[in-house]
Amino acid sequence: DYYDIMESPRGDKWVTIGDVSGHGVDSGLIMMMAQTSIISMINNCTDCRPSAVLNSVNRVIRENISRMGSDHYMTLMAIRIDESEVTLAGKHQDVIIYRSALNKTEVIPTQG
User: Fold this and answer.
1) Would you place residue 112 in the very low, low, confident or very high pLDDT band (cuts 50, 70, 90)?
2) Could you give the CA distance from residue 78 to residue 38 in angstroms, rounded to a whole number?
3) What is the pLDDT of residue 8?
4) Which site among 34, 77, 97, 100 is 20 to 30 Å from 107 CA-CA?
């Protein structure tokens, strides 16, 4: 399992959640590659949209998994929270939001 919470140099908050298939060294390496790619993208892009971050990470991970000769895969979702909106991309698990003032939950399906 993979998750990370970070703040970009621009002040927006990011939550990334994912999972690599399998166990062992290969899975751990893939997870570290994903984390490094995500952090690099978020820290260095000017127009960071979750979809752009995931597209870039996908290219890096796909190329490296191919070089490793591995058949692993990774699900991943990225959520960006700024002052005015929440934006997400990816397909891992649906997002569940609890609204305490209403004592209600909402399910936001991820589109993949």
Assistant:
1) low
2) 9
3) 92
4) 34
State the residue range of the domain holding 62.
2-108
Reported pTM: 0.81
Say how many CA atoms lie within 13 Å of 95 toward its Cβ: 19
User: Identity (one letter) of the amino acid at 82?
Assistant: D
User: What single-letter amino acid sits at 41?
Assistant: M
List phi, psi (to 5°) of 66.
-60, -45
What does the alpha-carbon distance between residue 25 and residue 45 come to, in Å, rounded to a whole number? Answer: 30
CA distances from 94 to 12, 29, 30, 80, 83 (A): 22, 26, 23, 15, 23
pLDDT at 92 over 90: no
Pick from 36, 18, 112, 35: which is nearest to 73 by CA? 18
Rounded percentage of the chain residues whose pLDDT exceeds 70: 96
* The total number of structural domains that make up the chain: 1
d(C-alpha 77, C-alpha 53), whole Å: 10
Q: How far apart are CA 11 and CA 26, in angstroms?
A: 33
